[in-house]
């Protein structure tokens, strides 16, 4: 009779069997594992496996720090980050610098610029910020310190 009723049944006779015997939960997991094995299915969903494959390629050591989260990074998303938490870090042989302000890549056309406080942002993002402010100053989004465009230093990356 327990094969016909679910563990949430209101029938007291079968409800006490489900509650008293932990073997039903084990039987359920064994049955699911065997069905997946018989049909060549994974017991983990394909969507989860696909997401984990992509997240493991994107995960960097910066993804675990709360203060270095990026808006456009899937690993920095709370839901996807939880899915990627047990995954290893991706191996990045050629890194790309992404501006924290604009989310755009920093390269020779959009070079990284260092503020006097040490934070680095792209030249275009800082220029846009200076143009949008009436006094032409830049405000660091992390420290709220204000600087002039002349205070910026170009960052040169070497290997």
Can you offer a commentary on this structure?
There is one protein chain. Strands 4-3-7 form a three-stranded antiparallel β-sheet. It has a two-stranded antiparallel sheet with strand order 1-2. Strands 5-6 form a two-stranded antiparallel sheet. By secondary structure, the protein is an alpha+beta fold. Helix 3 packs across helix 4. A hairpin with a 5-residue loop joins strand 3 (112-114) and strand 4 (120-122). The termini are far apart. It has five helices and seven strands. The relative contact order is 0.08. Helices cover 35% and strands 10% of the residues. The model has no long low-confidence stretch (mean pLDDT 83).
Helix vs. strand class: alpha+beta
The low-pLDDT segments are: none
Task: State the helical fraction.
Answer: 25-40%
Radius of gyration over alpha carbons?
26 Å
Largest sheet: 3 strands, antiparallel
Mean of all residue-level pLDDT scores: 83
Number of strands: 7
Strand order, sheet with most strands: 4-3-7
Proportion of residues in β-strands: 5-15%
Oligomeric form? single chain
N→C terminal distance: 70 Å
Shape: elongated
Helix count, per DSSP? 5
Helix-strand sequence: HHHHEEEEHEEE
């Amino acid at each position: 009779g327990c094969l016909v009723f679910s563990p949430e049944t209101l029938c007291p006779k079968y409800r006490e069997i489900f509650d008293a015997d932990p073997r039903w939960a084990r039987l359920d997991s064994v049955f699911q594992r065997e069905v997946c094995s018989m049909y060549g299915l994974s017991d983990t969903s394909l969507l989860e496996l696909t997401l984990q494959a992509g997240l493991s390629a994107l995960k960097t050591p910066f993804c675990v720090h709360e203060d270095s989260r990026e808006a456009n990074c899937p690993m920095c998303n709370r839901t996807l980050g939880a899915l990627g938490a047990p995954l290893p870090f991706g191996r990045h042989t050629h890194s790309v610098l992404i501006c924290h302000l604009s989310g755009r890549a920093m390269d020779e056309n959009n070079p990284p610029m260092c503020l006097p406080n040490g934070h680095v942002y792209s030249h275009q993002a800082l220029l846009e910020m200076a143009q949008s402010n009436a006094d032409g100053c830049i405000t660091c989004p992390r420290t709220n310190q204000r600087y002039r465009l002349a205070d910026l230093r170009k960052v040169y990356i070497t290997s």
